[in-house]
Amino acid sequence: MKRRDSQANKIYRAGNLIADGFTFDSLPQVQEYVNGITKSNPWQAWGGQNRVLVTEPKQDGFASSCRTNRISLPQWAWNERVILHELAHLLTYKPCNHAPHDASFAGKFLQLIGWQMGTTVQLKLIKYYGVIKVKYHTE
Ligand SMILES: [Zn+2]
């Protein structure tokens, strides 16, 4: 049975309220940032793949991740916040269209934000999760 991705809009709203973090000028720079994450101990402890390929979408302008080892990012998405959103999908992978923005995704995104962007940004996100009523859990 296919479940609705009922939290998607709330997640986008909460995410948009925090800072973008670092922004990058080129795809190789984004790849380098992602490599730094995927080689790290926390990423591997969370079960992430050793290497995640970053590509640009061929057609539409959306950022997406429908596999466990690849993310697709148009130029507007070359910032830490959106990259961490897509990486959280890889760590909470479910077949595409199967409620990808559920409570475990929201929790993993929160962990990645705290790890890469710091506690202040993480606390802001927790606050916005509360205001917008985003469900999340961390293991
Ligand atoms: Zn998403």
Give an account of the 3D structure:
48% of the residues lie in helices and 4% in strands. The chain is mainly alpha-helical. It has helices at residues 8-16, 27-38, 41-45, 80-91, 103-117, 119-132, and strands at 53-55, 70-72. Helix 5 (103-117) runs antiparallel to helix 6. It contains six helices and two strands; from the N terminus they run αααββααα. The chain has a two-stranded parallel sheet with strand order 1-2. The longest helix has 15 residues, at 103-117. It is globular. The protein has a single domain, classed as Zincin-like. It binds zinc ion.
Order of helices and strands: HHHEEHHH
Structural class computed from helices and strand pairing:
mainly alpha
Beta content: under 5%
Strand order of the largest sheet: 1-2
Uncertain residue ranges: none
Summarize the structure.
It contains 6 helices and 2 strands; from the N terminus they run H-H-H-E-E-H-H-H.
Q: How do the helices and strands line up, and which of them pair or pack?
A:
Elements: H1 8-16, H2 27-38, H3 41-45, E1 53-55, E2 70-72, H4 80-91, H5 103-117, H6 119-132
Parallel strand pairs: 1-2
Bound molecules: zinc ion.
Which key terms come to mind for this protein?
about 140 residues; Zincin-like; two-stranded parallel sheet; about 50% helix; binds zinc ion
